[in-house]
Amino acid sequence: MLSAILQFKNEQDVHQVIEKLGFKGQMNQFKYNVKNKTLIEAVYEPAPNSLTLQFSPGLNLEEYTMVHEKIVQLKQQLHAKIDDSNSLLGYLKSGEGAYIVTNWQKWYEFLQGAKLTTLEGKKVRVLDKNDKELASGLFVGYTKDEQSSNIVECTVITLFGERSFQGSNLTIEPTNEW
User: Fold this and answer.
1) Which of 68, 100, 114, 119 has the fewest other C-beta atoms within 10 Å?
2) What does each C-alpha distance from 68 to 10, 55, 92, 130, 148 come to in angstroms?
3) CA 133 from centre of chain
4) What pLDDT is recorded for position 46?
């Protein structure tokens, strides 16, 4: 199991914060579930004021993203310091380690870029930020917003020719059709 440890001052009701963020449990042990799957197991230790969060090394990127977001929310709400040195997810181009919080954004962008490169010339669906399908066709290219790293433009070849679609946060996903 991978893990991260949050350390904080005991200034608030930790149980209340954890439960407010969707964790369920009793005593000092909690679980965060999505679609009947446990993504995070948390153990609160009052004596050193720490929260140990454990998660599987075999999650997909969407699940890791949910774990990352929950850990960041906990860190912020508990005003905690984090040790995520036992949560190595992979490596950046530079060879530097990527962890569930440390270097997360760089790692996520690296994986997204690699994914989109492999989709060039394949049939994809273009979705807006509300998951509404804008188009499907052969993937040609995309443009990212420099600050947010969101995809803001996508070009595909449809039945009607080459078309570009714009939005504030587009999603490009394979259709697995030929």
Assistant:
1) 114
2) 23, 10, 17, 21, 17
3) 21
4) 86
- Three-class SS state of 67: helix
Record the pTM. 0.81
Question: Strand pairing partners for 29?
Answer: 26, 43
pLDDT tens column, 36-93: 999 999 999 988 889 999 999 999 988 999 999 999 999 999 999 999 999 999 999 8
Instruction: Work out the mean pLDDT of the chain and round it to a whole number.
Output: 92
Q: Of 22, 29, 26, whose CA–CA distance to 45 is shortest? A: 29
Q: Is the pLDDT of residue 150 over 90?
A: no
Give the C-alpha separation, 178 to 140, whole Å: 15
Cα(51)–Cα(84) distance, rounded to whole angstroms?
12
Q: What is the DSSP letter of 19?
A: H
State the CB neighbour count (10 A cutoff) for residue 109. 13
Compute CA 58 distance to the chain's CA centroid, rounded to the nearest angstrom.
14
- Which amino acid appears at position 147 of this protein? Q
